[in-house]
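Aim 2 progress update. The chain analyzed this quarter is reproduced below.
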Amino acid sequence: QVQLVESGGELVQPGSSLRLSCAASSGSFGGYTIAWFRQAPGNEREFVASMRWSGGSTYYGDSVKGRFTVSRDRASNTMYLQLNTLRSEDTAVYFCAAGRPITSTTRSRAAYHIWGRGTQVTVSS
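Predicted structure tokens:
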């Protein structure tokens, strides 16, 4: 079973950019959909974006559409989340997840059964 390791989170100022990484520390992403979720203190875990590893189809949450972009590096089995024009409300722990959802469930937390430990993104002046 694939294991996920996130990295790249840090403290940045509003308007800045950041790139998060999700690497497969064991196994391969082949056959999975890889998703990013985020959770701020006191909030539910929120869908951010996902990509089907084999076909490349992407989906985005409404709050990040146009600002965040997912991409992949097949050679290194790494998924990236580019965060642009960051806002204070983007502050959260960002989690990488793997699963095999159908299109209608790709934004659902329950569709993913493998999770990383998360990386903290803090947007503050």
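The mean pLDDT is 95. The chain is about 0% helix and 50% strand. These observations will guide the mutagenesis experiments scheduled for the next reporting period.
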